[in-house]
């Protein structure tokens, strides 16, 4: 594993096999990757990238993850969306983009990669802020999501605001704190949206310095108490970025969890 865990954010990856648009804005797109092998068509895996919802982070840093999943035989879409710091990003555009993309991508991928993708609901793999967006999509469009693998998700927006994660990232997304825009937190905070219907696995490294693991511990406990089919996998010796790095010690755990979700449907 590289000495700097953040190196995965700038690591090159093979070009995607196709790019499709689910809206008219230049960021309402997704990169598609064909599954290796020649098996029957499969449900799509939609990767929702993190970066604290900010414009400076885009889908390209999930290229190594997406290409590695495609090499394992999964059809993969790397979802892009409008982010804070650009027109239309933040509330509500970031959230409505993800909902629209998740709903449209299986059909778009089936057309772009004929014979390799089914148009059935996808499994979502979301990292960090992308984990929040995956949980949000599963809560608001449960029929469009088969399962969620949330990697170090920002699963408590009010607590993330209180902790000032990434210097005001939640306030930039929602336009203020819980006391300022309570209705926005009620609509978007995963803790307000339990229980999720889709089966969910949350994975978090105990050494995470970007998103404290207690956020996942508390969210999963709350969701389980509400009746959700959810489990938490804690990874000792893993920090924030190893979860999306195919050469990390966490990678076999990530692929095992995805396999369990993907094979369910």
UniProtKB/TrEMBL annotation:
Pfam families: BD-FAE. The keyword Zinc does not apply. Residues 31-218 form the BD-FAE-like domain. It comes from Micromonospora andamanensis. Gene3D superfamilies: alpha/beta hydrolase (3.40.50.1820). This is Lipase/esterase. Keywords: Hydrolase. PANTHER family: AB HYDROLASE SUPERFAMILY PROTEIN C4A8.06C, KYNURENINE FORMAMIDASE. InterPro entries: AB_hydrolase_fold (IPR029058), BD-FAE-like_dom (IPR049492), GDXG_lipolytic_enzyme (IPR050300). Signal peptide: none annotated. Residues 1-21 are annotated as: Disordered.
């Amino acid at each position: 594993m590289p000495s700097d865990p953040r190196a995965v954010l700038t690591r090159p990856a093979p070009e995607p096999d196709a790019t499709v648009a689910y809206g008219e804005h230049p960021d309402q797109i997704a990169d598609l990757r064909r599954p290796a092998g020649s098996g029957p068509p499969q449900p799509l895996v939609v990767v929702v990238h993190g970066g604290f919802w900010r414009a400076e982070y885009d889908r390209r840093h999930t290229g190594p993850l997406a290409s590695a999943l495609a090499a394992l035989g999964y059809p993969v879409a790397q979802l892009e969306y409008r982010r804070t710091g650009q027109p239309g990003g933040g509330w509500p555009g970031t959230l409505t983009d993800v909902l629209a993309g998740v709903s449209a991508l299986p059909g778009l991928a089936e057309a772009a990669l004929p014979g390799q993708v089914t148009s059935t609901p996808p499994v979502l793999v979301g990292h960090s802020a992308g984990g929040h967006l995956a949980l949000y999509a599963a809560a608001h469009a449960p029929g469009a999501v088969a399962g969620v693998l949330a990697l170090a998700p920002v699963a408590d927006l009010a607590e993330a605001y209180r902790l000032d994660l990434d210097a005001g990232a939640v306030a930039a997304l929602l336009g203020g704190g819980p006391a300022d825009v309570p209705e926005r937190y009620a609509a978007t905070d995963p803790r307000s949206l339990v229980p999720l219907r889709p089966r969910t696995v949350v994975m978090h490294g105990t050494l995470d310095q970007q998103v404290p693991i207690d956020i996942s511990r508390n969210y999963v406990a709350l969701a389980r108490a509400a009746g959700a089919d959810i489990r938490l996998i804690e990874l000792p010796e893993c920090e924030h970025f190893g979860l999306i790095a195919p050469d990390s010690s966490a990678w076999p755990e990530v692929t095992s969890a995805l396999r369990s979700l993907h094979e369910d449907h």
